[in-house]
């Protein structure tokens, strides 16, 4: 079975979010991933990218940028978004958000859509890393094949 992976370095601009989302959606369509599962992962990716755009920094090794990596292998998709912002406070864990909350809903949404989520800081570099994965459902037994 083939695998597919890609990594992008994107500017910390709102316009970069749809680019990452479209690339993931196209990758998942090529792999025959069920559209509902693909939509969930694209929504989670959008939230992670929006956080990187909002909270990232113009300093560090990725000045004014953030990185998105996606791995589709077998029946699993793993996504990682890294920025150079202040990172997560020690012991950070997203709390359940009240409907009125103005922030924090994105990370809670990512946790709700993915099977496994990890929030951590980039050691030695500064910044936050959000990684999440999901077991993929395929359309009609479709398997990703090399072309």
Descriptive notes:
31% of the residues lie in helices and 27% in strands. By secondary structure, the protein is an alpha+beta fold. Strands 1-2-3-5-4 form a five-stranded antiparallel beta sheet, with helices on one face. The longest helix has 21 residues, at 35-55. It starts with a strand and ends in a 12-residue tail after the last strand.
| Strand order, largest beta sheet | 1-2-3-5-4
What is the makeup of the main sheet? 5 strands, antiparallel
Spans of at least 5 consecutive residues whose pLDDT stays below 50 are none
- Please identify the structural class as seen in this structure: alpha+beta
Based on DSSP secondary structure assignment, what is the total number of beta strands? 5
Please indicate the percent range of residues in DSSP E strands (runs of 2 or more).
25-35%
| H-E order | EHHEEHEE
- The end-to-end span amounts to 12 Å
> What fraction, in percent, of the residue positions are helical?
25-40%
Task: State the shape.
Answer: globular
The Rg value, from CA coordinates, equals 15 Å
The number of helices is: 3
Average pLDDT, to the nearest integer? 84
The assembly state of the depicted protein chains is: single chain
